[in-house]
Design a protein that fits this description.
Layout (H helix, E strand, L loop, with lengths): L12 H6 L3 E9 L4 H11 L5 E9 L6 H14 L4 E6 L9 E5 L9 H10 L8 H17 L7 E4 L18 E2 L1 H4 L4 H9 L22 H10 L5 H9 L5 H6 L12 H6 L43
Parallel strand pairs: 1-2, 1-5, 2-3, 5-6
Antiparallel strand pairs: 3-4
Length: 314
């Protein structure tokens, strides 16, 4: 890591961001609620006069950890982010797309209400039909941007992808996304070092980051969460019982959908835990950590679901 982080090869911040400065464009910052995007937001706000306007958005699924919501609120209060808190507004009429509701720290869902509405319409998300990021994050943000009267040529969207995770950047980007931390050559340790100097932090270990029980997380993380906070799985367990056959995929294959990799249910994850299971350990926790490595950063993985074949779920 130290070799990778040679400071003398870092692109100076001012020079790295200069190519994005445009007084005719609005900068939209996608704040996921993690340390990386929080750090990126703070850095970009140093240059806010270089754009026509700067707007920070956070899309709440209703299944984020409470500490994540507290962290975002702290950033608003202490750093003056003025984040626009959004949630998906689902219309169950066929042909009507997802729009947005504007909420705030106090009114944001903690019970998974927007998530359940997505599942009710589109079915349970899993590796064969990963609709949750699209419906709960991407579309509400896009709907909000549209409500401002902004067209694609009017804005840039900053995504919090670091230099050490550049594989997550959308290399086939046809949109107006920018990745400032890649240009600044900022890696995970840089972010951790910066937050260590602040007077508040994201107070959860890595495996609890973003949607607590997210199906994209490894089995090891999921089983650790199951041991440490079993109530976190109450929502997905309820969804598997309530909406097993909702959505186009379930209708096509006539099979109950399960959230987790390997066609596993919440009960399956629970049964995988053995007496000798060694829990996931976040070595940075209570020092500094970065949230879930499998986080749902809006727009970073826009999969064309129409190309997913049913055989891929077997």
């Amino acid at each position: 890591m130290e070799e990778y982080r040679q400071k003398d090869i870092f692109t100076p911040e001012k020079e790295a961001l200069a190519k994005y400065h445009d007084k005719d464009k609005t900068l939209i910052i996608s704040f996921s609620g993690g340390r990386t995007s929080g750090y990126m937001t703070k850095e970009l706000l140093k240059h806010k006069d270089k754009w026509k306007d700067v707007i920070i958005t956070f899309a709440n699924t209703g299944q984020e950890h409470e500490k994540t919501l507290e962290f975002i609120n702290n950033c608003d209060v202490r750093f003056n982010f003025n984040t626009v808190w959004l949630e998906a507004k689902i219309t169950h009429e066929k042909g009507k797309g997802t729009r947005h509701n504007i909420v705030n720290y106090k009114t944001a869902s903690r019970t998974g209400k927007p998530f359940e509405e997505v599942i009710k319409k589109h079915g349970i998300p899993f590796t064969g039909a990963p609709v949750c990021t699209r419906e709960l994050k991407n579309y509400p943000i896009q709907s909000y941007i549209k409500s401002l009267g902004l067209k694609k040529q009017d804005y840039l969207m900053a995504i919090g992808i670091r230099a050490d995770e550049n594989r997550r950047a959308n290399v086939n980007n046809k949109n107006n996304f920018i990745y400032p931390l890649l240009d600044m050559n900022v890696d995970k340790q840089d972010v951790l070092d910066w937050w260590q100097k602040q007077n508040f932090d994201l107070e959860i270990p890595e495996h609890f980051g973003n949607c607590v029980w997210c199906w994209k997380k490894s089995y090891k993380k999921l089983m650790t969460i199951m041991i440490e906070e079993p109530s976190a799985f109450d929502f997905p367990k309820k969804m598997e019982k309530k909406y097993p056959r909702n959505g186009a995929v379930a209708n096509k294959i006539q099979r109950d959908i399960k959230f987790f990799r390997g066609w596993k249910s919440v009960s399956d994850i629970e049964e995988m835990i053995t007496e000798d299971f060694e829990k996931f350990k976040d070595l940075h926790y209570l020092h500094i950590t970065d949230g879930c490595e499998d986080s749902c950063e809006p727009f970073h993985d826009e999969m064309n679901e129409s190309l997913i074949k049913v055989k891929s779920i077997d």
